[in-house]
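Below is a filled-in request sheet from our internal design queue. Each sheet records the structural input a requester submitted and the sequence that came back. We keep these sheets so that new team members can see what a complete request looks like end to end.

REQUESTER: design group, bay 2
PRIORITY: normal
MODE: inverse folding
CHAIN LENGTH: 149
BACKBONE (tokenized):
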């Protein structure tokens, strides 16, 4: 009886292990995976692909050519070492040319090949039909509307 009880306790402990740590990997959520793909596209110089995944209302704010020109100036292509999706959460964004559309906030931290890391930051994703589309932040919207980076 004691052996059976120990075996049962061991089985319960093994079955409980995957539950430790709480939730699923946020990088495997649809919005998290979309941000991983976006960061990979941007830091590998695939600006056309990144632009294609930009929310349609934001594509009317910035042309593909201006977006690519600005990205070439500001993104150190080839420097990214890792992408960590820290959290994905329901978020409401004011403005951002969406009119109150529900969004997912994605908290991200990037690490570069030189060992430097960004402070965690939040990007936003919106599901449009069957695809997740990323959003420009307000600073980028303002700059693009003024025709600059």
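RETURNED SEQUENCE:
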């Amino acid at each position: 009886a004691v052996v059976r009880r120990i075996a049962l306790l061991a089985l319960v402990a093994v079955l409980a292990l995957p539950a430790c740590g709480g939730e699923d990997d946020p990088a495997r959520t649809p919005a998290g995976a979309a941000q991983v793909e976006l960061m990979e596209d941007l830091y590998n110089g695939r600006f056309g692909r990144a632009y294609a995944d930009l929310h349609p209302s934001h594509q009317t704010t910035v042309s593909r050519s201006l977006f690519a020109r600005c990205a070439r100036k500001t993104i150190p292509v080839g420097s990214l070492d890792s992408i960590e999706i820290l959290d994905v959460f329901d978020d409401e964004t004011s403005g951002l040319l969406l009119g109150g559309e529900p969004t997912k906030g994605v908290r991200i931290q990037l690490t570069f090949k030189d060992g430097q890391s960004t402070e965690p930051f939040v990007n936003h994703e919106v599901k449009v039909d069957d695809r997740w589309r990323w959003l420009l932040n307000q600073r980028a919207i303002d700059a693009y509307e003024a025709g600059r980076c």
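SHEET NOTES:
- The two ends are 73 Å apart (CA to CA).
- Residues 2-16 form the longest helix (15 residues).
FILED BY: M.R.
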